[in-house]
Amino acid sequence: MIIRDQQRALKNIPRTAIAVVLASLFGLSLVLSATTRAKASDIIRNDGFKWTDAFFHYPYRSLSETGPVLQIVTQEYQPAQKNLSSFKTKLSIGGKTYEHGIGVHADSYIRIQSDKPLAALSAWIGIDDGTSRLGSNRGNVIFSVRTSGRELYRSPPVRSGGPAIYINIPLGGATLVELHVVNHYENPQKNYADWAESSVTTETGGETLRLDQLKWGEIGYQPSDYPFSFVYGGKSSSELLPKWTHERKTTRVDPNREVLTETWKQPDGPLTVRMEATHYADYPAVEWLLYFENSGEKDTDIVENIHSMDLVVAPGIQTPEKHYFRLTKTDGDRTQPEQFLPSAVDINQGEEQTLSAGGYGRSSQKDLPFYNIEYQGGAMIVAVGWTGEWKSVIETPDGSHLHLVAGVERTHFRLHPHEVVRLARMLVLDWHGDPLEANAQFRQLLYEHYVRRLAGQKMLPRIFGHSGFSGMSLNDSTAAQYVAAMEAYSKIKGVEGFLTDAGWYEDGYNRGDGNYMLVNHKLFPNGIEPVAAAGKRLGLPYGLWFDVEMNTKGTYLIRSHPEWFLSPPARKDPSLDKEVNRFQDPGQYQDPNRYLLNFGLPSAREAQLATVDHYLDMPGFGLYKQDFNGYPFPYWSSNDAVDRQGITEIKYIMGLYEFWEELAKRHPDFVLEGCSSGGKRIDLETIKHLSIAIKSDLAGNHETDQTSMMGLSQYVPNTFPSVALTTLDDYGFYSSLPATIELGWRVYTPNFDFTRANVLVERFLRVRELLVGAWYPLLPPTLDKTLWVGSEYYRQDLAKGLFLIFRRENSPYSTVEIRAHGLEANAKYELVSETSQVTQEMTGQRLMDGLSITLAQPRSADMIVFRKVR
Fold this sequence. Notes:
By secondary structure, this protein is α+β, with helices and mostly antiparallel strands. Helix content is 17%, strand content 35%. The strands form ten sheets. Strands 3, 4, 7, 8, 9, 10, 11, 12, 13, 14 and 15 form an eleven-stranded mixed β-sheet that branches. Strands 18, 19, 20, 21, 24, 25, 26, 28, 29 and 33 form a ten-stranded antiparallel β-sheet that branches. It is globular and about 95 Å long.
């Protein structure tokens, strides 16, 4: 029997639509609106490297010198009218008539762009009285005013028959203003709305211009003139930066990377803004990072609403029915089977999607901070590098332009004299062509330029023993038992280390977290040194677990330096209510006895470095695991002053990166593992600073491992996520294969099958080099146990790859058809099935057209290794 639905999904649709069916989509070509050499109405359509070149041509919008321009972007039902209602009667609201204004019908979207900064917008707003002639008084709308991605005003629901509402909205020097009227529940066909006596006032000279008098035309949609945006002293960066002193410096790092440093200095003021951007020659990608510095002797004004990314993508996917964009987002690690599960959503005109860390302060707890935007002809990959609370809003006002903003979620602060902060690192790859290839290229970009190296060498996926996954008690296992486990693991050729999990210190896991200078001598009578020495003797680099950030009340460091710690919030943080808690682990996260070490303090960081080094400097060490069990965001936010919102978090995260950088500098050949109650801190920055990160604390669920590794493989090279392997069967082994493997075998038991274990480790070592190249989905990621799933890993430089195929336990289908990707059509490839050992030869075209795979038994798997032979 063949899985007909899955066959058709990959065989009977155009290749460009495969990403839609797979819901693991990839690819996209990016577009910016306008450049300094273009008219405001122009849209620069750049593919690949052309886009990355255009990225640096800011300010993007060239403002008209002829005065403000008004554009009707969206107008449902009847056309907008000057000085009349939308059905061409005199403007009238609540029985009062008006001579001037604009009549619209919801949903309506108007843009106003001005060559001069605007101070205010005023109008009388309401439902036009003409709706009463339509036999109903039930029109109901909401008016709003936006600028620079911010909503300045939102009306209450406005209904027919009510009086006009007068608004006078400060615009703070904006040069692009958006006016929206949207339907609100009742009778949308009756929603004729008026902006009566509407006008804008310029900042310079105070000139007032009625909207009906403005030039009506086309405006290039570009909310920010730079690839970022912020508000300073109430004014937008698009208005401020052209007037500031500007310097540009270019540095060639290596043949494939050029770093551009842009500096904007406030005239007669203390603020300096710096952007460091990396332009890649080998991938169509740009990375950039913002810094804000107070170089003066007094506090700055308020810096707020910082968006490290503020870009526009166009055009949308076009069908006869609509224009839209497709977002592929991926769940974070919620310690549930649905972890890292990708899903696709179409963003239609007037809609938006919001992705975030979820209010916890751990970057991949709610959403993975990588996503894919598909539009007409291509795809764009976006990565947010911030190991704290981030947010990205993705919206399209008209279906043709997609506005992307992202960055640290909470920014509203003054900087003290000589204070410097950095924000989220942004990375964008633009791909023109096959959307699936965008993700394949992005993974290789990360492996080449971001993945941490060991002693200067590129790392492959690792395999090592883990005490906790091996069933050893956290708080009761002894030094002798750990040495015995290492001796057993040393019988398996190729195992690359052994890690002792939490609980080796006084008072044990949770209660004793922080007592890292106090070894539990009941369990380790001679300390840690003999255990590490045993690892050295056996050729297994040894490692220990630490949670250097969250400590328990009464433990060693809190007693020594209570001033270094952020106290638990005095009351329950509203972001951690029951509704949000569906994304959390049950347990200690609201424990009032848990204190957060303030990594923003250099002295606190140095103390923890000294603690960690006390052990890592012992002969035999080669592993370090840093866990983080807690929600930091309430600690950060409750310690911020009103005019310093976000500063505690920013300083903390900056200090955390410095801690990791120093740790890597001191121990360049150590494997540094991250953990955050599982995989809740997987982001661009942790990939840069750490060697691996455990995917989840939910171990042994094979279907979850298969699907979640597909979700992570969209973006993350498979050196970085680690997966527990607790069984010796093929199905479990292949479920854990495409990752760094943390062995959880009971090697210390009398009947353990070392022969089988050696076979599996040898198999992993033989193919692990193939896991760091391109990845393509062969079948849709799903947790459905009646279906199959499958992935392709391919190294183009080696002309070699593998297919991983799984038939789930409830699947009645014995055969499935897969399609390879990225191969040379006319080349010949040799395929070897690991299960059957059958060898066959096929052309690349044949493999890309379709290959039938048969697995006779449910709950079975196969790995097919292929290589180009001619």
